[in-house]
Automatic annotation (TrEMBL):
Protein name: Beta-1,4-N-acetylgalactosaminyltransferase
GO CC annotation: Golgi apparatus; membrane
Residue intervals of the Galactosyltransferase C-terminal domain: 154-231
Keyword Nucleus: no
This protein's record includes keyword Ribosomal protein: no
Gene source species: Exocentrus adspersus
Entry's EC annotation: 2.4.1.-
Function of the molecule: Catalyzes the transfer of galactose onto proteins or lipids.
């Protein structure tokens, strides 16, 4: 908590308007003392975001500017639940955010990391300084879980119902994480080589860790998530080999090797990137 607050001191946006006071986050974070758990059954409402799913609080000037990036293919009902829930959730936090959905439009096995690279690439062009890389099936339930970047990359979804609120292993770095745009760029994003389930997040952990950016986690209570149910994906049998190869390929495989075969559409609630 302290970490986010300290970090924000250095992130005052340019052109700070004198008419608007900076938004406060301390109150939300301190609310954690009695933790506000959002129940997904309660009636949720949110303000209509700007086209493309961007939102800025009106009564104050947000210090946090976050791109929420969701890798996606063919999970319509989960996407609907996720998007509606997340607007409601994020608007409670007084942050400036925009939701990007990066859709893989081909018949190859799903490439989660590559979709995240595309999302991040667009977010960078639009000057977002904090990235939250987020699976579509995860819902955070504590509004004190601020969707901003700390000094170090942060593993957010570390207290998950489907893992019985335990960490399966210490270096797990999938699900939902935050990382500053600067740091993401510094490690050349994620590898584009992982098709199918597994390993891409472990490779990303290696990238950030070997760059001296050892990921952090906050208090487990803050990081509680529930997972929407879905069919298990087939694991990528090559993932062990890929992880070995990826070690020496990091410099050429990532943000700098993306082919920009994409189109961008501004939906009412999110920016939809189609990658072919
Ligand atoms: C791990 C997967 C991760 C996945 C987590 C949680 C691999 C590589 C094996 C060396 N890693 O086992 O990608 O996020 O489980 O489900 O499969």
């Amino acid at each position: 908590k302290e970490d986010i607050l300290n970090h924000m001191k250095f992130r005052h946006p340019e052109n700070v308007s004198t008419a608007l006071k900076s938004c406060t986050y301390q109150d939300i974070i301190l609310e954690n003392e009695f933790i506000e758990i959002v129940t997904i059954t309660q009636n949720k409402s949110f303000q209509k975001p700007l086209s493309g799913g961007e939102f800025k609080p009106k009564h104050c000037l947000a210090l946090i500017k976050t791109a929420l990036i969701v890798p996606y293919r063919n999970r319509t009902s989960q996407l609907a639940i996720f998007i509606n829930y997340m607007h409601f959730f994020l608007q409670k936090q007084n942050i400036h955010y925009r939701i990007f959905v990066a859709n893989q439009n081909d018949t190859l096995p799903f490439n989660r990391a590559k979709m995240l690279n595309y999302g991040a690439s667009l977010a960078m062009k639009l000057n977002y300084d904090c990235l939250v890389l987020h699976d579509v099936d995860l819902l955070p339930i504590n509004v004190g879980n601020i969707y901003g970047c700390a000094k170090l990359p942060r593993h957010m979804s570390c207290n998950l119902d489907t893992f019985r609120y335990n960490l399966p292993y210490l270096s797990i770095f999938g699900g939902a994480i935050s990382i500053s745009t600067k740091q993401f760029k510094m490690v050349n994003g994620m590898s584009n080589s992982f098709y199918g389930w597994g390993g891409e997040d472990d490779d990303f952990y290696r990238r950030v860790n070997t760059s001296g950016l050892k990921p952090c986690r906050f208090d487990p209570e803050v990081n509680r998530y529930i997972m929407l149910s879905h069919k298990k994906q087939d694991a990528n049998k090559n993932r062990f080999l890929l992880m070995k190869l990826a070690v020496r390929e990091s410099e050429n495989d990532g943000l700098n090797s993306l082919l920009h075969h994409w189109s961008i559409k501004l939906e009412d609630l999110y920016t939809y990137i189609t990658v072919s």
